[in-house]
Amino acid sequence: MRERWQDDSPHDECGVFGIYAPEMDVSRLTFFALFALQHRGQESAGVAVTDGVRLIVHKDMGLVSQVFEEDTLQSLPGGLAIGHVRYSTTGSSEMRNAQPFARTRDGSFIALAHNGNLVNTDELRASLVRNGQVFESTSDTEVIAALLAEHPSRDIREALRDVIPRLRGAFSAVLLSKDEVVGFRDPYGIRPLVLGQIEDRYCLASESSGLDIIGARLVREIEPGEICVINERGYEIEQVVVRKREALCVFEFIYFARPDSVMKGQTLYAARSRMGEELASESAVDADLVIPIPDTGHSAAIGYAARSGIPYGDALIKNRYIGRTFINPDDRIRKLGIRMKFNPLSSAIRGKRLIAVDDSIVRGNTTRALVRVLFEAGAKEVHLRITSPPLIYPCFYGIDMANQHEFIAFGKSVEEISRELGATSVAYLSLAGLLRATGVGDANNRFCAACFTGEYPCEVPEHLRWSKFRYEENTCGGLRT
To answer: Looking at the predicted structure, is the pLDDT value of residue 353 above 60?
Structure first.
């Protein structure tokens, strides 16, 4: 049985890649791109490739380097490919939910890989089942593939024009047919997707780091509600659904995307450094050392140190060889807990007043353990500084966080959170400071921040809200927030 490593961080659902390049080794290029996108999902990986006649899909549980070996790559010939790395939200973590999904369509085939989460999956699946469709998985991605496969139009673009408006929620997807690769994005742009150019051919990726590794240059972002068709003629972009209020998940800037990726014209390393600067301005405290919680706190801690004038240093050494998952841990190893992942530098910690910078706190289990480790190593004070506002609302668009009652910040003051974590103090970055730090113009109208505000850009069905919210009786008889 495979169990998740409990690092208590938000997790994105997955990363996608697609390429049309008949003259190149597209399977190998897809492998490298997925390797660069590994941070977006570590449960399974897969590639679908075609030579225009046959479709080959190879996918399995595990990391990209475990799923694809040299012999595997040599057995995947073709000129068009899509790839996927997965962290499960809709659908459990098991082989049947690994992507891409393949379906027959009009005497041929399609394959689909998807990043995000639909909020009307049950409704769509029920309709398809009534029409005789059979499903092998519990994933919403297979539902999208089935909708496209059963569409009567021979033109895949026409099918997409009809199907995309029926999808509710977050989706950035890549589609493979016998002679085209197509990318498409939901009308809010909740999940990212970019277009790249490699020599005179084109490719798609969840973020620009997936392009850099194969020597492709960033051409542009696929905008909300657009489809991008890549074929022998190059690429064509079409707006197939009316754009809504733009709502890129702000956690792409805070945590998910690699710091070397570029989104909305901003390098995420620089944006995260600015978050640290904003945090230092909002919540200054006397201390001796600013330290990051590896790895996601590094750039923000550098920004905090620069703005505050307090020296920056490393105090927690991360074990690079433990991933987010491991197999069959026994009780003795479980009890080692956080020490498996982080080891304190006692010589740098002893007698120091520390400012520990991290991106977020979800349940608080890992943070509480880290605070304890720092004090046991001799820290005099531990001040937690978090580069996001308190998480108090669940996500329905493909981030695996927690149900509302599990959030440590739900229903608590900052002082109560600090006491529960055992920290000297806790301070969060304000939403206004976070949005300023993105460097994106009119940031208030460019991001989804529902996990902080409860303002969901895409309507969430009531049964899903009941499944994740904590409903309690109050004077109005409704949701207490």
So the answer is: yes
Catalytic entry in 14, 203, 451, 458? 14
Sign of CA dihedral 384, 387, 389, 390: negative
**The pair of three-digit structure tokens given for residue 362, joined into one six-digit string:** 């979800």
Instruction: State the average pLDDT for the chain.
Output: 90
Instruction: Please calculate the CA angle 147-153-157 and round it to the nearest 5 degrees.
Output: 80
The phi, psi pair for 136, rounded to 5°, reads -95, -15
pTM here is 0.90
Got the DSSP string for 38-74? GGG--SEEEEEEE-SS-EEEEEEES-HHHH--HHHHH
Say whether 203 is catalytic: no
Q: Decide: residue 157, CB within 10 A, 0-12 exposed, 13-18 middle, 19+ buried.
A: middle
What does the alpha-carbon distance between residue 456 and residue 463 come to, in Å, rounded to a whole number? 15
Q: How far is CA 252 from CA 40, 46, 205, 221, in A?
A: 10, 23, 14, 14
Q: Comparing C-alpha atoms, which of 77, 103, 111, 83 is closest to residue 180? A: 111
The structure tokens 């977020």 sit at 360
Kindly report, residue by residue over 4-39, the tens digit of the pLDDT. Answer: 334 555 544 699 999 999 999 999 999 999 999 999
Q: At 118, is the secondary structure helix, strand, or coil?
A: strand
DSSP, res 104? E
Cis peptide before 106 (omega within 30 of 0): no
Strand pairing category for 226-231 and 217-221: unpaired
Phi then psi for residue 48, to 5 deg, are -120, 130
Least confident of 120-129, 161-170, 421-430, 471-480: 471-480
- List, for residues 377-408, the tens digit of each pLDDT value: 999 999 999 999 999 999 999 887 768 888 99
Domains and CATH numbers, the chain: 2-246 (3.60.20.10), 263-468 (3.40.50.2020)
Are the CB atoms for 291 and 322 separated by under 8 Å? Answer: no
